[in-house]
């Protein structure tokens, strides 16, 4: 982590920051099933692509697994109590696809339905609105054996799963997220091989974008067919992109990355068409030249909100390793998070403005999800001082509260409630407002939890 320290005046004026919060803005926290539930072989759950991936030597930084994670499967009441005491409006969590529908097709696992019923009911009893993500990366392994997101049929499997979930929980869920960060699945899982399933297809991974977007559209239709009461949206990651210089090749490659990371996943949703690259790069995205019009009609079905996951900006230089046409350039002007990303809250404002500029009236209300990894400092009394996370949280909240012209910001979600199993980083990158002890899974609220608690109490 960059030693440059990020200060925030809001750490010493929490009531002042709270006063800036727009009236009606929902503030919540998030987790995902694979990262916190554990119980990976309990009560009918079958393996996902990530179960297989984490069992392969060298895939996970610390050689850990999610077998126990934060043990949230057995600690529902404890976690809901912490949410209630925190004072949040909503809780975003994901349904474990391999838990609820273990083989990716067929009926629901009754034990899983009972588990999520209990969680949803306890949230509602605590006055917390459930925000459910259908698919947060844990694809059932049988679907991966059939090709995963390279197989068009997986889109239809997601739709069937969405209908099943809608029938089971649609009377009580406030908001539905169809897919979390499909760009990360394509780039990390199928292009670069750092995420499950570990494929290194580079630009041959592009069909997974189409199939995930189609799955989203079909899932929207399925949820509405199940007559769910809640709002429906998606969560796309968006990174403002800058070229490393004004040289033609750098500018061109920055446009390429902006297209495949950002616009490839938002243009079809909001404009009903796939983005076009300059002529000299168009051959790279030829996979989208003959998309069926009916697919685009399904993908661009109206949604009730647009989920935006913001992590950091990206700086691009022409030329990369092997056959890769570009590389990522650091941002020395910013401090970095524990995972090495630039801590650049001002670029959250850029991301919001870019969405408003590109999509205008086609942009639905926006729900943000923001979070960062930082090391925890354990004090003599056992308390945990994560000042850097507090500053990150405060500065990004301040930007969100200020808003951006043309953006109807309706929600802000902090990722995450608990320290969990952070994918390929294992347990080396804590994101939580609450520390989870590695051996006992006991919960200890951090300074950032107390900071957010004070802010919510002062609204």
Automatic annotation (TrEMBL):
GO MF annotations in UniProt: beta-glucosidase activity
One GO BP annotation of this record: carbohydrate catabolic process
Keywords of the record: Glycosidase, Hydrolase
SUPFAM superfamilies per the UniProt record, alphabetical: (Trans)glycosidases (SSF51445)
InterPro entries for the chain: GH, Glyco_hydro_1
Pfam families: Glyco_hydro_1 (PF00232)
Source organism superkingdom: Bacteria
Keyword Hydrolase: yes
GO (cellular component) term, any one: cytosol
Gene3D superfamilies cross-referenced by the UniProt entry: Glycosidases
Family recorded in the similarity comment: Belongs to the glycosyl hydrolase 1 family.
Protein's name according to its UniProt entry: Beta-glucosidase
Gene source species: Marisediminicola antarctica
């Amino acid at each position: 982590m960059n030693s440059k320290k990020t200060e925030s005046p809001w750490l010493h004026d929490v009531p002042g920051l709270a006063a800036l919060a727009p009236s009606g803005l929902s503030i919540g926290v998030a987790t995902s099933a694979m990262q916190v539930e554990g119980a990976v072989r309990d009560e009918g759950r079958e393996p996902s692509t990530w179960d297989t991936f984490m069992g392969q030597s060298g895939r996970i930084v610390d050689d850990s697994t999610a077998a126990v994670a934060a043990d949230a499967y057995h600690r529902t009441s404890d976690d809901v109590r912490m949410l209630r005491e925190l004072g949040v409006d909503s809780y975003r969590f994901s349904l474990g696809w391999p838990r609820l529908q273990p083989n990716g097709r067929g009926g629901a696992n009754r034990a899983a339905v009972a588990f999520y019923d209990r969680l949803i009911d306890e949230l509602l009893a605590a006055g917390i609105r459930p925000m459910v993500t259908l698919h947060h990366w844990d694809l059932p392994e049988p679907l991966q054996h059939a090709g995963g997101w390279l197989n068009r049929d997986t889109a239809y499997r997601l739709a069937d799963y969405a209908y099943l979930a809608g029938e089971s929980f649609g009377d009580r869920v406030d908001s539905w997220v169809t897919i979390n960060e499909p760009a990360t699945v394509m780039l990390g899982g199928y292009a670069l091989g750092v995420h499950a399933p570990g494929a290194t297809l580079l630009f041959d991974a592009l069909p997974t974008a189409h199939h995930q977007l189609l799955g989203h559209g079909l899932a929207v239709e399925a949820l509405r067919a199940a007559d769910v009461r809640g709002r429906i949206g998606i969560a796309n990651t968006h990174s403002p992109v800058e070229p490393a210089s004004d040289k033609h090749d750098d500018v061109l490659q920055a446009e390429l990355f902006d297209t495949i990371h950002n616009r490839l996943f938002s243009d079809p949703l909001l404009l009903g068409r796939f983005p076009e690259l300059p002529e000299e790069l168009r051959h790279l995205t030829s996979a989208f030249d003959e998309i069926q019009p009916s697919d685009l009609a399904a993908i661009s079905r109206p949604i009730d909100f647009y989920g935006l996951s913001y992590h950091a900006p990206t700086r691009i230089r022409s030329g990369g390793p092997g056959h890769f046409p570009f590389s990522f350039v650091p941002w020395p002007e910013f401090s970095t998070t524990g995972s090495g990303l630039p801590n650049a809250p001002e670029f959250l404002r850029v991301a919001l403005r870019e969405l408003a500029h590109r999509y205008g009236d086609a942009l639905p209300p926006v729900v943000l999800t923001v979070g960062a990894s930082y090391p925890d400092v354990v004090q003599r009394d056992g308390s945990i001082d994560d000042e850097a996370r507090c500053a990150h949280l405060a500065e990004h909240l301040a930007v969100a509260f200020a808003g951006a012209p043309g953006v109807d910001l309706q929600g802000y979600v902090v990722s995450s409630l608990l320290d969990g199993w952070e994918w390929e980083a294992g347990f080396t990158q804590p994101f939580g407002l609450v520390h989870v002890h590695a051996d006992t899974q006991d919960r200890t609220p951090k300074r950032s939890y107390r900071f957010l608690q004070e802010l919510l109490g002062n609204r």
